[in-house]
Specification:
single chain; 523 residues; D-Maltodextrin-Binding Protein, domain 2; 60s Ribosomal Protein L30, Chain: A; 3 domains; 6-stranded mixed β-sheet; 21 helices; 15 strands
């Protein structure tokens, strides 16, 4: 039979148990265990909001302890995010952190292969690309299901073709050696220029180099006749090669090179709130830089430090881009039904075909709808105001004698059939214009277009001159109406039989002379 406890023994035993409980409580509290499981008080609300990733707009997400790592190259088009981050490193001084409780880090990875290896190994979460060249690499990333999240910029002078003395137009590149980094924005730009100038890639000699920097080195050393380079190497090439010139740049070819950022599908699905904040802050940064030179100078200082380049070069690099706003992204993803310009899908689909024909891309690449994730753009309703609007189309002044006489940068000749003595376009003529020149007209949105009507020498000379002018005007009217181009953009000329390209004494020659020439000219 067990012994019974006395009243005193019971009291002492109870005090011992209470002491153990109290001691255990203070031990757990001092080690932070209780604070991690206990509900926060009302006074702790602000701290809880930061730790949960809840921003002032009510978007909640993961802990700010997790850093979003963004892979970039030495380029001015990512300034919106780097400016809003107050630098390249993750910092509590960043506006991403102050406004959204978000930590962001930018990693400069100029080597292409190293950047893709870092992406596959999760060393970076978002990685740069250009949508035009994406078809050449997307199949190799299939295991990671990459998706494009937003557009950062359009190249506006950052890519350029430099050429030696005697090369004044695209037609002069025929048979020449051109240094270019294959499957890069430089390659894309060259292919577009050749198309606009009625040249096939096989009509030039491509000298493949690892990158645009090496292309500039090849040009300066005299190994090639022309090269596709990045700014500021274009100016350096002109300075160092007597008689050299910038043949064309993306200042005029304004909608060809589109920088985007993509991520793994699995990462996107597990980080939606954080990515919403990243996009919103980035777009605010881009809008602020676009609206103020003071902000642009601040961004240049940040880029100068992060990229280890002179501040003035960083400033020029930003000026050689269009930092894309929320409105631009809506256009890029086709979310604005009134937009008739170049969309991401247009560039992706076109260059998929072009690069496949050149054996740089497989016959089949993922459909645009599978690799384009517009959810961040489509769901954002807080980016309102004119500063977040899309870029307006360039304003062209009325044309004059200078535009009629200026040298063409590129000329594309099309056979557009008209009925005898008529100047109105039929459906087949419209199809030819759309197929062979519509994309070029949209992509080179900052260039004027000179349209020259030409006839053979059969019939009355004056009647042919008038008819060729009316036919050229008819083509311009169609382009203006179909693509919403300013009528001031066009220079209309009727040559009649005065500009033959073949022998008017043969049926074949006369057929070649009955043509319409589309010429890109600098404004």
């Amino acid at each position: 039979m067990a012994a019974r406890l006395t009243t005193l023994s019971k009291l002492l035993f109870t005090l011992l148990i209470v002491g153990v409980i109290v001691g255990l409580f203070y031990l757990l509290k001092n080690n932070g265990v209780l604070s991690s499981i206990a509900p926060a008080s009302k006074e702790d609300g602000d701290v809880k909001g930061i730790m949960s990733g809840k921003n002032p707009n009510g978007i909640s997400g993961k802990s700010s302890d997790e850093t979003i790592k963004v892979g970039v190259v030495t380029w001015g088009g990512y300034a919106g995010g780097q400016y809003f981050n107050e630098g390249f490193t993750a910092s509590e001084q960043s506006r991403f952190y102050k406004d959204y409780g978000l930590k962001v880090e930018f990693n400069v990875l100029d080597d292409f292969d190293a950047s893709r290896a870092a992406f596959k190994a999760d060393e970076v979460n978002l990685l740069w690309a250009t949508v035009d060249a994406f078809p050449t690499e997307v199949k190799g990333l299939a295991d990671f299901e990459p998706q494009i999240l937003f557009q950062a910029d359009w190249s506006r002078g950052g890519d350029a073709i430099v050429a030696r003395r005697g090369i004044d137009a695209v037609k002069d590149l025929k048979g020449k050696k051109i240094a270019v980094a294959p499957m890069t924005p430089s390659h894309t730009f060259l292919l577009w220029m050749l198309d606009a100038g009625d040249l096939e890639p096989k009509e030039v000699t491509i000298i493949e180099v690892p990158n645009a920097i090496d292309a500039a080195t090849y040009f300066k050393s005299g190994k090639v006749d022309a090269a596709v380079v990045w700014s500021p190497d274009d100016a350096d090439c002109v300075r160092n090669v007597p008689g050299a010139k910038i043949l064309q740049s993306t200042k005029n070819a304004s909608h060809i090179i589109a920088d985007i950022f993509y991520a793994k599908k699995s990462y996107i699905q597990s980080h939606v709130p954080a990515l919403q904040k990243l996009y919103e802050g980035w777009m605010k940064g881009a809008a602020e830089i676009n609206a103020s030179d003071v902000n642009k100078r601040k961004a240049a200082r940040i880029l100068s430090q992060g990229l280890n380049i002179p501040e003035e070069d960083a400033y020029k690099a930003i000026n050689n881009t269009r930092l894309c706003t929320h409105g631009d992204n809506r256009n890029f993803f086709g979310l604005n039904s009134e937009y008739s310009g170049v969309k991401g899908e247009d560039l992706y689909d076109k260059m998929s075909l072009v690069y496949h024909r050149l054996n740089y891309a497989p016959a089949s690449v993922p459909n645009w709808r599978l690799i384009a994730n517009s959810s961040l753009v489509n769901s954002n309703t807080s980016l309102i105001g004119t500063e977040h609007s899309a870029e307006s189309a360039k304003t062209f002044s009325p044309t004059g004698a200078a535009q009629k006489a200026s040298e063409a940068i590129a000329t594309k000749r099309l056979r557009i059939n008209f009925r005898t003595a008529e100047y109105l376009l039929d459906e087949n003529a419209k199809y030819i214009i759309d197929k062979d020149f519509g994309d070029i007209a949209k992509a080179f949105a900052n260039s004027r277009i000179r349209i020259e009507g030409n006839t053979d020498n059969v019939g009355d000379y004056t009647a042919n001159k008038n008819l060729s002018l009316r036919r050229a005007q008819s083509v311009a009217d169609y382009l203006s109406a179909q693509y919403n181009f300013s009528k001031n953009r066009f220079v209309i000329i009727g040559n009649g039989p005065d500009n033959p390209v073949s022998d008017n004494n043969t049926d074949e020659g006369r057929a070649k002379n009955r043509r319409t020439d589309f010429e890109l000219i600098a404004d």
